[in-house]
Amino acid sequence: GQEPSLDRDCTTLSRHVLQQLQSFGPDAQDLSALMNRIALAAKLISRRLSRSGLVEGVLGFTGEVNVQGESVKRIDAYANEVFISVFKQSGLVCRLASEEMEKPYYIPENCPIGRYTLLYDPIDGSSNIDSNLNVGSIFSIRQQEGIDEDGSAQDLLQSGRKQLAAGYVLYGPSTMLVYSIGKGVHSFTLDPSLGEFILSSENIQLPDCGSIYSVNEGNFWQWDESLRDYIRYVHRHEGYTARYGGALVGDFHRILFEGGVFLYPGSVKQPEGKLRLLYETAPLAFLAEQAGGRASTGVEEILDVVADHLHQRTPVIIGSKDNVELVESFIQERAREE
Ligand code: P6P
Questions:
Q1: So where does substrate get bound (predicted)?
Q2: For atom 9 of ligand 1, which residue has the closest CA?
């Protein structure tokens, strides 16, 4: 039955991580401490976002440009700095890799004792801030494997199945943190009055099939014919509804909780699609599989992709098993004809 509300109020993030791992080995303690650091970063960013538009420095541009070639809004730079400073103090993370940094950043104080690498997108969908719509942070934790001399971070390019933990923070009407350490997917809601993330859903499971498809149909003419076949199909068949917020974390969160499929396909101009593998699609693919769903590039599982560089992009089809398979069937159909 439902735990008494007090118990639920006291299931904080760090306690939850320890509970899951049962064993209190070094990994359990480390992952619990790391999730606590993520929570601290999330609280700092959430607080800043709640003032966006009021406080100088949250909106507007720094004039710099990130790996996307997008002009960096101040909040992206601020959020990137938050993760760096929070994890400097952790003593656990030796290296940070972010969309906002061309090369990974080694935390000198923590190396070489640091056992982990954090990969993250500090603020995803920052263009949504100006219209006060949701944005998110995405993170992935991997083992620190040696010190790469030339900073090419070859060890980070291994498949997403090497991830120890992954998740995201959704800065929406409430701030939610959703994570997995390989033992199911769990969500926490920030209680600002407590300053704590309190457990809200455990062992979230994606339904095998859902009615939502989430894709930017404005790119329709950029896609391969197979994706257009899929869109024509869902237009013609009852029971589908389109939802697209234009920010990955919010669009994925909707699929995780309601079922269906999110797609960001490749296009003629960008065959690899727009979204980054190591700190966007691989962490979400980790969650999707942990929640009983799937994440595909259209031809292979996202979690099997081995990157050839840090900021590599992949096409992504992610969500309920049956919905992902339906999209793939159109891709396979066209491939047979070629
Ligand atoms: P489009 C936001 O800029 C972002 O990186 C993701 O958060 C989002 O899923 C995607 O790009 C939206 O791209 O081309 O649909 O505007």
A1: 124-127, 216, 244, 274
A2: 248
Rounded CA separation 284/133 (Å): 20
Q: pLDDT for 269-327, tens place per residue?
A: 999 999 999 999 999 999 999 999 999 999 999 999 999 999 999 999 999 999 999 99
Q: Which atom of ligand 1 is nearest to the CA of 218?
A: 15
Q: How far is the CA of 291 from the centre of ligand 1 (A)?
A: 23
167 annotated to bind ligand:
no
- 290 torsion bin: left (phi>0), alpha (psi -120 to 50), beta (else): alpha
Instruction: Report the candidate in 317, 338, 125 with the shortest Cα–Cα distance to residue 231.
Output: 317
Identify each DSSP E strand in 48-203 by its residue range: 61-65, 71-73, 93-98, 105-106, 116-124, 135-143, 165-171, 175-180, 186-191, 196-201
Q: Which residues, listed in sequence order, are joined to residue 118 by a DSSP beta bridge?
A: 96, 141
Annotated binding residue 131 = no
Pair type for strands 116-124 and 93-98: parallel
